[in-house]
Amino acid sequence: MENIKLPLDLNLNPIGVLQPGKQYYIEGSGDSVELPEAGVYMLSVESGKVIQIDYPDGTDSRLVLATGTIISFYFPAGTTISVGDEDLQLNINKMR
Fold first, then answer.
1. N or C: fewer beta carbons within 10 Å in the chain?
2. Beta-carbon contacts of residue 39 (< 8 Å; ≥ 6 apart)
3. Are 24 and 31 in contact (CB under 8 A)?
4. How many C-beta atoms lie closer than 10 Å to residue 87's C-beta?
């Protein structure tokens, strides 16, 4: 067996690492993506402004993101992410 090194936390327990899976891309005003499955998604903003997040239970959120922001969220299945600015470019990665 190979000697595999894992990243460890302060208690010397292995730290879980998420891998990128399916990728979605939003470019410009009016674009939106409905996420088909629940999970952790990483948002990466290429040119930032405001994104709208509509959850399946009817609640919503608005986020103001700066260019270069990378942030992770847990989204339930059916969440819709849309942009309100034609200059916004947003990568969405479903992590596995």
1. N
2. 74, 75, 94, 95, 96
3. no
4. 12
What's the predicted TM-score (pTM) here?
A: 0.74
Q: Which residues of 45-70 are buried (b: 16+ CB within 10 A; e: fewer)?
A: beebbebebbeeeeeeeebebeeeee
Rounded Cα–Cα distance for residues 47 and 63 (Å): 13
Q: What is the pLDDT of residues 26-75, one digit of tens each?
A: 887 678 899 999 999 998 887 767 888 999 999 999 988 888 888 889 99
Q: How far apart are CA 8 and CA 72, in angstroms?
A: 21
